[in-house]
Specification:
Rossmann fold, alpha/beta, 7 strands
Length: about 200
């Protein structure tokens, strides 16, 4: 399948050149020695060694690359072929695929085994098209083993936490834990960020 033939069905519209600019932004942070591994550290603490992990909405691959380096088996997925091309260039040892989450079918790429966990960092669900949040969550969930986890992080001004709680339940997940940051600051109702650990049944 031609990666560039896939239209971004689940991202909201962005300005022309946004993806290229984001790639350079992340590369610049990495070159400056910025800490880009916070989400990956959270996931690594949650996971058994050598877990299979979906980096859903992976962008240029900063989270998945760290998880791979820590011994996990990672498949990164993003609808944006520009971001996937950057991930493949910068982190060639990881599997990066172009696909939207709503219609996610990793078996079609040869990934037949279910996954232990998924991470949706970087406001992924805040960027999906309106009314597709449940479908995107289900797209991820159907690739997880029973008892697998999805960890979702987003700014609460971009996506209402009350709305998210309705969506996760409709998608078939159960909320297991919630924090206000990726470094485990306690959740409170006034928090401007939410990190939710979801359990797939």
């Amino acid at each position: 399948m031609d990666d560039n033939a896939l239209a971004p069905k689940w991202f909201t519209d962005t300005e022309e050149g946004h993806s290229e600019g984001y790639v350079e932004y992340i590369r610049g942070l990495a070159a400056d020695g910025a800490d880009l591994a916070g989400e990956a550290r959270f996931m690594d603490a949650l996971l058994a060694p050598g877990s299979r992990v979906i980096d859903a909405g992976c962008g240029p691959g900063r989270v998945g690359a760290v998880l791979h380096a820590r011994g996990h088996r990672v498949v990164g997925v993003d609808v944006d072929s520009v971001l996937i091309d950057a991930a493949r260039e910068d982190h060639p040892d990881v599997t990066w695929l172009v696909s939207d989450l709503v219609e996610l079918n990793l078996a079609s790429f040869g990934e037949l085994e279910l996954f232990d966990a998924a991470v949706l960092a970087g406001n992924v669900l805040a960027f999906v098209a309106p009314q597709t949040e449940v479908a995107a969550l289900r797209g991820v969930g159907r690739h997880l083993r029973s008892g697998g986890r999805a960890v979702v992080g987003f700014h609460t001004e971009r996506y209402s936490i009350d709305e998210f709680d309705v969506h996760l339940a409709e998608a078939g997940f159960v909320l297991e834990h919630r924090f206000a940051t990726w470094d485990l600051q306690p959740w409170h109702d006034e928090a401007d960020f939410a990190v939710s650990v979801l359990l797939w049944s």
